[in-house]
Amino acid sequence: MSALRSNQRIDLSVVIPAYNESERIGKTLVSVDAFLKKEPYNYEIIVVDDGSSDDTVELVHSHASTVNNLKLLQLSPNQGKGWAVRTGMLTASGRYRLFMDADGSTSIRHWPQMRSVLDEGADVVVGSRHVDGSMIRVRQAPHREVLGHAFRRLVQFLCGLSINDTQNGFKAFTARTAERIFSRQSVSGWAFDVEILTIAKELGYHAEEIPITWIDDDRSRMRFTAMPRMLTDLLQIRLRTVQPQPAYRLGETPRLITLS
């Protein structure tokens, strides 16, 4: 297992939220590491286990000898994807911070383009399935696509966001931007993406979308039973003024473990 390159500074933090992902996260860890170890900068991969009841933690530990600079952050009990991402992004130390889904639906190969856009002045970069140049290699079921379209229209109406794809789980930030945005996040569930983009807009940050190639995984953790909560969260996002939040909730004791 190689150590960090000589200057020890972390250039890129990759945050991967995981809840019962033992069947999918191993392949994603290997592919992310294989790509980044060819790049000329230091990186860390932070898996945020959100109170999994399967073998996710053991699976992550099993990659300690093969995946460079792998870290594990454990939350208990389950807090929700939004809170797992928030905790990981505020724990990260990279000057760029990217979060991505454990299923690898969007490949890490899109990161260099994201970095170029950040270096050109953007504060937030969103991997999008709904801009020119994007490619969906495996589509969602038709009913999910219809619901997704309706949700996007509702987000645009309620929150005034011009982002075409708020929900794709592949977004990158500069460190300062990430710290200011995620410290104000309060939504812990699936609508957190809308909240962080709304916060970015209210803070005057410049967000851009890049086209991505996307592969649907029909084992998505998002269920229709989550829709009422998402709608409630959207209304709260629309009505409230963003303010800094406590780093952790009362009683939380997240534990960061450096595995390699």
Keywords:
260 residues; alpha/beta; two-stranded parallel ribbon; 20% strand
Model description:
The protein has one domain: Alpha-Beta Complex (Spore Coat Polysaccharide Biosynthesis Protein SpsA, Chain A), CATH 3.90.550. Helix content is 34%, strand content 20%. It contains eight helices and ten strands. The chain is globular, with a radius of gyration of 17 Å. The model has no long low-confidence stretch (mean pLDDT 86).
Q: Topology, pairings included?
A:
Layout: E1 12-18, H1 25-36, E2 43-50, H2 56-62, E3 70-75, H3 81-91, E4 96-100, H4 111-119, E5 124-128, E6 135-138, H5 142-159, E7 170-174, H6 175-182, H7 192-202, E8 207-211, E9 213-215, H8 227-239, E10 255-258
Parallel strand pairs: 1-2, 1-4, 2-3, 5-8, 6-9
Antiparallel strand pairs: 3-10, 4-7, 5-7
- Uncertain runs are none
Overall mean confidence score, pLDDT: 86
Give the tally of structural domains.
1
CATH topology name: Spore Coat Polysaccharide Biosynthesis Protein SpsA, Chain A
Report on the biggest sheet. Answer: 8 strands, mixed
Top CATH class: Alpha Beta
Assembly annotation: single chain
For the biggest β-sheet, the strand order reads 8-5-7-4-1-2-3-10
Instruction: State the helicity in percent bands.
Output: 25-40%
Instruction: Supply Rg.
Output: 17 Å
Under CATH, the homologous superfamily reads Spore Coat Polysaccharide Biosynthesis Protein SpsA, Chain A
- Number of strand segments: 10
- 3D shape: globular
Distance N to C terminus: 7 Å
What is the strand content? 15-25%
How does the helix and strand content classify structurally? alpha/beta
Number of helices: 8
Order of helices and strands: EHEHEHEHEEHEHHEEHE
CATH architecture title: Alpha-Beta Complex
